[in-house]
């Protein structure tokens, strides 16, 4: 398992310190997540950035799984993700090269406890998407969202319920982020 932490559009000051701090939290979170949820994928890339860039990187990753989507649908989806992503601390996406891409908004996660909690939360999602069949199902979901292969309402509702369960599981583990601060 490889965990890489990078900074993107952070400005000149604080970039290295933030990246080192996040690397420490990610190293500490990995065994907690593996024990509680399951194995992390072979490659996890964490990008520390601002909110707008986080959403843009996530949207690009998602759109890469929907080649052939119309330009209008891509614009609509980008607008939708920006609207729903406002105020988000982090987002986890499938990396088109394999593995998982995590974006973290350092403009939202401004304190050490917030950053540690966000990294732990998003790494839980990384492990969830690494479960058998989860990646393939999520790609099908993305193709549905980009209107390449529409699902029935029932299938869409069933996957929304899966997302809700995953989110509840990630939230339940957030209190363990305090261990990462030591």
Structural class: alpha/beta
Strands in their spatial order, largest beta sheet: 1-2-4-3
What is the C-alpha radius of gyration, as a whole number of Å?
16 Å
> Helices and strands, in N-to-C order?
EHEHHEEHHH
Shape from CA axes?
globular
Q: How many domains, as an integer? A: 1
Q: Spans of 5+ residues with little confidence (pLDDT < 50)?
A: none
Mean pLDDT: 92
Gap from first CA to last CA: 23 Å
What portion of residues is helical?
Answer: 55-70%
* Number of DSSP E strands: 4
- Biggest sheet record: 4 strands, mixed
Compute the number of helices: 6
**Beta-strand fraction estimate:** 5-15%
Keywords: Plasmid
Written description of the protein model:
55% of the residues lie in helices and 13% in strands. The chain is α/β, with parallel strands linked by helices and 182 residues long. It has a four-stranded mixed beta sheet, with helices on both faces. Helix 2 runs antiparallel to helix 3. It is globular and about 45 Å long.
Per-chain topology:
Elements: E1 2-7, H1 15-36, E2 43-49, H2 51-63, H3 71-85, E3 90-94, E4 100-105, H4 112-129, H5 134-145, H6 153-173
Parallel strand pairs: 1-2, 2-4
Antiparallel strand pairs: 3-4
